[in-house]
Amino acid sequence: MALLLPFIEFKPNRVAEGDPFHLWHLGLTWEPWLLAAIVTAALLLALSGEGPRVRAAKVAVGSALFAAALLVALRAGAILVTEATPFGRVGPIGGFWISALASFLIVEGSLRTASWNPMIKGAIRVLPLAIAAGALASGALDSFAMVQEYINRADRFSQELTTHLRLAAFAVMAAVVIGVPLGIVAWKRRLLERPVFTLVNTIQTVPSLALFGLMIAPLALLSRQFPLLRAIGVQGIGAAPALIALTLYALLPIVRNTYTSLSVIPNAVIEAGNGMGMSRRQLLRFVEAPLSVPIILSGIRTSVVQAIGNTTVAALIGAGGLGVFVFQGLGQAAPDLIVMGVIPIILLAVLIDRGMALLIGLVTPPGLRKDTL
Amino acid sequence: MKRLIVPPLLFGLAFVVLLNAELLEPLLRTLFPNVREILYARIPLIDLFREHVMLVLVSSVTATVTGVSLGVIVTRPPGRDFLTVVQGLSSFAQTFPPVAVLALAVPAVGFGFRPTIIALVAYSVLPILNNTIAGMEAIPRELTEASRGIGMTPLQVLFLSELPLSARVIAAGIRTSVIINVGTATIGAVVGAGGLGVVIVAGLVRDNIAFVFSGAAAAAVLALAFDWLFGRLETLFFAPRARVSR
């Protein structure tokens, strides 16, 4: 499939329809053969059973597949976009994406069952990103459509990226400050358990765009009533309603996991601590915290990943962030711009998810460790 | 009993007020006295509501059928080889934001109702698939072996023993994906899918709070109603008392 489907498309300018090219019609010499050889090797490996050696070979071939696909795309870009077509741009299509997906499946499938050091696994997973980032930095990808969209707005991009990260981070921090005590209260006071959970569950059920929308009217009203609020930037649209809605949204996983983290500490463990003569503070530091912090952190992990996604939607109410490019792209029917906005968002979500998983693994007491990656 | 009557009455009342122009207009006038154009005139809210429900139903039903079948296939002996890969891919893909999947549908398929359905299905199949696999894997081996032992065929084991035993977990996955679909379908307005998001986006573009409010309120009530309905169905089918009455 990777070899048969059109691999890359060429567009004479931004809005024109793409012209699909097959791997073999690109005018390349040895590169398609390299890709074909790797695909054959992958097929042979798939048929050759199990074992640590086969697994290592699969990881190597899988990684090579991505690198080769990228190489072909690069070389094709250099051939298709010449000085005669200054506005020309290429974009990877079917064949390239299938190669990338196959590479991911092969590598991930072998890594999941491998009992290697998590650091090595992590490095292998980051490798394709590093290769792509290297290619990007070297300028070799400049003829790619989404890279051109980026080059045209590099300043705006870093600005929106900062806004995006700042919005998501502030919202999650606020949600931690509110949510952890809320979870503790729900656990300590039985009467409040139901109302607290009904509230945070209800908030999470409301569609994100609707929640943003519902924030606008009351905030616009407040801002009109109190000039002081307006002076500090609280308005119906913009960052203020976005932050409030994002914070509310991030509450559920944090409250739920704080509650769970308290409920899973067995009474016997606390009593054992008491029996050893631990003070209240020692009990918290050496018994309760090590048991509950990893669970609360995994709640935060869910919240951050969600917040990255919801912040995208916040661009619709004028809060900025990477969603700006996505919705601009949708508005102008410019697919390259959409992809240029979406890929960093997905990368952010995935990287933060992996980073949090590593962190959770580090703070989990060795006796309780499972493979969270 | 109270919990069976009050919520549907409230949801019903909310829908009647929000979807009926004659009732909605006075409400919006009192809430937003300064807004001149108070009602979204291009398409009646009730039509957008119907579109929204269609988006959610079509995508959720498709996702359920696909997710459960895929989950069943990878937990059968012939499909087991793919279990870890499918599980890995599906939990990996779940970290993608739903908006991102929706936006990517446009370069891949184009604008409109159909690409949105594809994006909604692609994303909402994941919780169902994950939960189907989790539910199947949680069944003790002795139970399925006992089912085989009393002479059930593999198909009977699947339909009479495994699926009923994991139904609760699968239902939770379906509930999650329906709620995600109501939310993502709201954003579907920006890719031309219609639905209640149309009024919200129109309001945002024209700086009209009344539009934004009416669409957002209707979408919120719709999501809460779906969630309530699934909650009721869950207690109805999987209530503790049903499990005791063996």
Task: Describe the protein.
The complex is a heterodimer of chains A (373) and B (246). Chain A is mainly alpha-helical and 373 residues long. Helices cover 74% and strands 4% of the residues of chain A. Chain A has helices spanning 31-47, 52-80, 94-113, 118-137, 145-152, 154-188, 190-205, 208-225, 227-231, 239-263, 267-275, 280-314, 323-331, 335-363; strands at residues 6-11, 19-22, 89-92. Chain A has a 3-stranded antiparallel beta sheet with strand order 2-1-3. Chain B is mainly alpha-helical. Chain B has a single domain, classed as MetI-like fold, CATH 1.10.3720.10. Chain B starts with a helix and ends with a helix. Mean pLDDT of chain B is 86; it is low at 241-246. Chains A and B meet through helix 3, helix 7, helix 8, helix 12 and helix 13 of A and helix 4, helix 5, helix 8, helix 9 and helix 10 of B.
CATH class of chain B, anyone?
Mainly Alpha
- Domain count of chain A: the total is 2
Mean pLDDT of chain B: 86
Q: Give the strand content of chain A.
A: under 5%
Helix-strand pattern of chain B, N to C? HHHHHHHHHHH
Oligomer: heterodimer
CATH topology of the largest domain in chain A: MetI-like fold
**Outline of chain B, from the CA principal axes?**
elongated
Strands, helices and their partners?
The complex is a heterodimer of chains A (373) and B (246).
Chain A: E1 6-11, E2 19-22, H1 31-47, H2 52-80, E3 89-92, H3 94-113, H4 118-137, H5 145-152, H6 154-188, H7 190-205, H8 208-225, H9 227-231, H10 239-263, H11 267-275, H12 280-314, H13 323-331, H14 335-363
Antiparallel strand pairs in A: 1-2, 1-3
Helix pairs in contact in A: 1-2, 2-3, 2-4, 5-14, 6-7, 6-10, 6-12, 7-10, 8-10, 10-12, 11-12, 12-14, 13-14
Chain B: H1 2-19, H2 21-31, H3 45-74, H4 83-93, H5 98-109, H6 113-138, H7 141-149, H8 154-187, H9 197-206, H10 209-238, H11 240-244
